[in-house]
Structures are given as structure tokens and as C-alpha cells.
Structure prediction request, 387 residues.
Amino acid sequence: MANLSYKTAGESHGRCVVALVEGMPAGLPVDADRINAALSRRQGGYGRGGRMRIERDRVVFLAGVRQGRTIGSPIAMQIENRDHRIDRAPGISRPRPGHADFAGAMKWLTTDCRNTLERASARETAGRVAAGALAGVLLADFGVECVGFVRAIGGVEGVVRDDLSADQLRDARDANEVYAPDAQAAGAMVAAIKQAQSEKDTLGGIVEVRVFGLPPGLGSCMSWSERLDGRIMGAVGAIQAIKGVEIGLGFGCAARRGSQVHDAIYYDEARRAEAAAGFFRTTNRAGGLEGGMTNGQPLVVRAAMKPISTLLRGMDSVNLQTRTPERSDYERSDICAVPAASVVVEQVVAFEVARAWLEKFAGDTLAEVHAACTHYHDALRHLGTSP
Ligand code: EPS
Prediction:
């Protein structure tokens, strides 16, 4: 059976965005409502521009599903673009600093940035969210939950307790329009976005994803390419506008001593039925990964998003056709897409976790994946004791 993987196709103003997922076991009930809910959340968040009032992202299954369940074949999902006018969209020759415009113009030897920006656009993340949400359906079948939220926008940072459950975190996040669990900070974030908008500017921020209910042993230290931390950082770093990714304490590790970074190990016989077979930690500075493998603690991933590169006020640029100095082009855009990015990072992390899941608990059918998972947990419970 193929490893779990996906590809996307589609331009920002083309007919549709498509995600093609391969390697999903047969028999998974496909929860379209769950996928559509993730797509809607990605469209939302305070600070989005006019485009999101046009689109109504919903998934249509083109292949890979029969009678509501996967059949083991590649799964093709389509999300329609209501605003599809790619052939009528104007050329862009005054590149926006920070956007793919300029690098793409030099790469493809063109003075029109349109082809580059159509594919570089964050519209493509609708496809990644569909693929990740499908992976999330698989994970949910095993009680694993990924919760993405906003930690900071434009330098306004919220406080989010480490000990919140998945439900507590989700409820607090969903209570406001910037997807920030800290209600007080959320108000200040909205104010910061309004201020940036009035100054014709844009804002970035920090998003975080926590994954609950993970068993130990996903990923591997045996080859660099199997390390789950590297895969997650690579996948998250490949999302539009992400400029930094950290796991657990991340950059915060660098200035601390080992005794203040590492998570001491304890054991409690009474907790032997839990996922980590009675072993536990009282801190999670490692963010759930040691040696590129899950250790039974929640996975904690953070990403820094740069401000949107389309500025109403423009920036100094050069007209590629005339080589004269001009202000950068303006296209309808968002002021702040950090809430949307929290959904994209959540779903991209879900996909990487599901991929590692199916490597450890491989099976052509969902029933076989469940059996492999149960077998592993039984074996883990006997670690260090006679069978
Ligand atoms: C984007 C520009 C805007 C955003 C778009 C990403 O689109 P438009 O130029 O059509 O107004 O809305 O994001 C999406 C369409 C989306 O679905 O997230 C860009 O230049 O990257």
C-alpha cells in the first residue's frame, strides 16, 4: 500500500482547487461535515478581505469514496472557486516585496507576475486543509485531536495555559473572531488589526497547534527522513507566509540549562492503562517529541507568520517592464490572515501525524490499522515486565 501523501492543484482564480490524497486505508467513513467545517473556519477570522465574502468553500468528492467510505483508491477532492477569472485577470509588473512575484518573475523569465501569484496564493491552502481534515477524520477514529489557535497577532500575545484539554482549548478559541483562547488578548488583537487597516498596512503573528491523544512511537530516530519533528517543521515551513517553526520550547531552549529544558520521567502503576503505559512527565517542554518520535505527551507546534505582502499603501518596487522605480501593485487582499493560518497549520500537522500513524500501524483496511494499534498498546503495557 502507498504511503499516505497528497498533492494539490489549482490557481487562485482558476476553476477550482483540487487535493489528491493517496494511501488512505479502505473503510474510513468520510465525514464531509468535518472537512467542510475546517474549510469554513479557514475562510474566517477577523482581518480577511473581500474574496472570502465571495467564496463558499465546500468539498466535493470526485474519486476514492463509495457509499460514504474510502475504498483504498486515491481520493480526489474538489473545492470550487466562485471567483474564477484567471484569463481576464490583469498582468502584474510591479512586484510586491515579500510576495512570490519578484522571485517568480526572475525564475520564469517574465515581466508579468500573474502566473506566479496565481499558484503562490494562499488560496491553495484550501486544498491542504481538505487533505488535512480528511487525515483528521482518520485520527479522530483513534481519539486523536489536533487543535490549532492564535497565540499572537502584531505583537499582541495571549496567555494560553499548558494544561487545557482539547475541548477547553477549542471552546475558548471558538469564542472570538481571531481564534485566540485568551479573550482579553483577542480584543486587543482585533484593535491592532483595525489600526493596521487604517494605516493601509498588514499584520502577522504566531499560531500554535496542540495534538492530544497521541501514542508514543510515531516517527523514528533511525533515519533523518523519518524523524517526525523534521517532517512537521518541513511541512509547516512550506505553508505560505510561514517564516519560523518551533516545537515545544523551541528557540526558548537555547538560553536555558539542561535541567530547565528536559522533562523528568516518572511512573505510576495506577496510570498503566493510559496511552504511555503508566510513564508520565510533569512538564512538556519537548513538545511531545524526543529523538524525532512521539513520547506520549501532547505535540506542541508553533509557527510565525509574516504580515501579508499586499499592502494598500504599497512599498518601493520597480516596474519590471520599464525598470523605473514605482510603488508595488495592489490587488484585493487580506489585512491579517493569522486566524486562517492557524487552521492551515492545524490541518498540515494533522496530515503529517496521520502519515506517521499509518507507517507504525499499517493496514489496507481501517480494521487492520485498529488491530495494529491495539496490539502495540498491549505490548507497551508489558514494557519492563514479564509477559
Ligand atoms: C491572496 C490574495 C487574496 C486572498 C487569497 C490569498 O485573494 P484575492 O486576490 O482573490 O482577493 O483572499 O486567499 C484566498 C483566496 C484564500 O482562499 O485563502 C494572495 O495573494 O495570496
DSSP finds ten helices and 17 strands in the chain. The chain has one domain: 5-381. The CA atoms of residues 98 and 309 lie 5 Å apart. The two ends are 32 Å apart (CA to CA).
